[in-house]
Specification:
seven-stranded mixed β-sheet; Rossmann fold; binds zinc ion; Metallo-beta-lactamase, Chain A; 22 strands; alpha/beta; 13 helices
């Protein structure tokens, strides 16, 4: 009998990693992501299975919590083939290289410090290096396309459906024959928010013997996207008309492209005062180029822009600053700037030097458009901290601070349940990729609204399909 075991994203959000073992068939892994935040230490623990025994790796999308342990998997012996969309593999390369660079840099700094104490032997090597990332791309990679089944073996296929979450994101249907019976197991991947400006709506699946569904926001509903867009507009327009500058810390993938589209739409409608918009993040610029390349996977409005303007994201006020000298030159502009820079939670990156130069001035605005995790500088500012330290210098936050919560790359409780309602046949529901407390709320909501039981998957629990 086929079994699924969870080696990450069971009762937590990050580290997504599931292994489907088919009787007399191959072992199929679905995602191999990194643990982040408080569970970060788990990345350094053994996987709990032998990477050499994994025959096929399917990847739902390129976020670090879904791809971040692939280099470790390869380093420890995985030699099978990888099957996913080309856009996902390209975006994953940007994500993995960025993370490898950061880890290598951190390692060098720690090593130097330890050396001075004579304790260099105690410094742990990074989880993976740039070379380990390159080794992933030396493996056999088979590119899937949305809605076209990929043959994985005899009586065994995988079909990728657009999940509308980030570029390339997919829900994966796996069909196989076991003991003479056809079975289908579905992994939702991360499901997108409906009516997103950049992504398409998630595609519905017709049937499943077993569904493994994400539950990140299974406990709540987002604020309306329309209200959030209105709030966004108001902050940007008022700040610019007041001769101020707008600072937007933003995630390189998805949120940045969404914000660019919003600004472009304002420009189109002549709602945007004359200004200079800077995409000041090399990673976001790389990601945006990939969004351009794979535009067919994006929303209709993105493709309408492309037809009309020959470009999706660009418009006259917008410029990309790749080099750090270009980034520093932004400091010389007194007013009328909208600066979009990483990192999204202000834990590093170019946003910090903009903070240093702009936060002391009450005419400027700091606009948060994404989740700020506990312990990050972003979260401390959101919670009211006004004396912050940047590069060993104290900076007083006099700029106005705004938080807009309605932008999300994830479906909320309503969206998740409505997505499940579209199944014509849905036998078993398993909850993964969510905090345990939130999953309990989601489980109750499913039972109430769908009249179906849902099971919260525990780490390494064997689920017989
Ligand atoms: Zn994701």
């Amino acid at each position: 009998m086929a079994i699924v075991q969870s080696y990450g994203a069971a009762e937590v959000v990050t580290g997504s990693c599931h292994l489907l073992r088919i009787e007399n068939g191959p072992n199929i892994m679905i995602d191999c992501g990194m643990f982040q935040g408080v569970v970060e230490e788990r990345n350094f623990e053994p996987f709990g299975f032998d990477p050499k025994e994994v025959d096929i790796l399917l990847v739902t999308h390129a976020h670090l919590d879904h791809v971040g342990r692939i280099p470790k998997l390869v380093k420890e012996g995985f030699k099978g083939r990888i099957v996913t969309l080309r856009s996902t593999m390209d975006l994953a390369e940007v994500v993995l290289l960025d993370s490898a660079h950061l880890m290598e840099e951190e390692y060098r700094t720690r090593y130097k410090k330890a050396q001075r104490r004579g304790a260099e032997a105690s410094v742990r090597e990074p989880l993976y290096s740039v070379d380990d990332v390159k080794a992933v791309y030396d493996l056999a990679i088979e590119y899937a396309q949305y809605d076209k089944s990929v043959k994985l073996g005899r009586d065994l296929t995988a079909t990728f459906r657009n999940a509308g979450h980030i570029l390339g994101a997919a829900t994966i249907e796996i069909d196989f024959k076991e003991r003479g019976r056809f079975r289908r197991v579905v992994f939702s991947g991360d499901l997108g928010n409906r009516n997103d400006i950049v992504m398409r709506d998630p595609v519905f699946v017709k049937e499943a013997d077993a569904l493994f569904i994400e539950s990140t926001y299974g406990d709540r509903n987002h604020r309306g996207i329309k209200e959030s867009e209105e709030e966004f507009k108001e902050v940007v327009v008022n700040t610019l008309l007041n001769n101020g500058n707008v600072l937007i810390p933003s995630f390189a993938i998805e949120r940045t492209q969404e914000i660019m589209c919003l600004l472009k739409r304002m420009y189109d409608k002549k709602e945007l005062p004359r200004c200079k918009i800077f995409i000041d993040s090399p990673m976001a610029i790389r990601a945006t180029r990939l969004y351009d390349t794979y535009h067919k996977e994006l929303s209709r409005s993105c493709n309408d822009y492309l037809k009309r303007d020959g470009t999706i994201f660009e418009f006259p006020y917008l410029s990309y600053t790749v080099k750090s000298e270009e980034s520093k030159r932004i400091n010389e502009i007194e007013s009328g700037c909208v600066i979009i820079a990483g990192s999204g939670m202000c834990t590093g990156g170019r946003i910090l030097h903009h903070f240093k130069h702009r936060l002391w001035n009450e005419r400027n605005s700091l606009l948060f458009v994404g989740y700020q995790a506990e312990g990050t500088l972003g979260r401390r500012i959101v919670e009211g901290e006004r004396h912050i330290h940047i590069y060993n210098e104290e900076v007083l936050v006099r700029a106005k601070v705004y938080t807009i919560n309605g932008f999300s790359a994830h479906a909320d409780q309503n969206d998740l349940i409505e997505w499940m309602e579209h199944f014509k046949r849905l036998e078993k529901i398993f909850l993964i990729h969510g905090e345990f407390k939130k999953q309990l709320v989601f489980k109750k909501a499913i039972e109430k609204r769908l009249g179906k039981r849902a099971h919260i998957v525990a780490p390494e629990e064997s689920i017989y399909l």
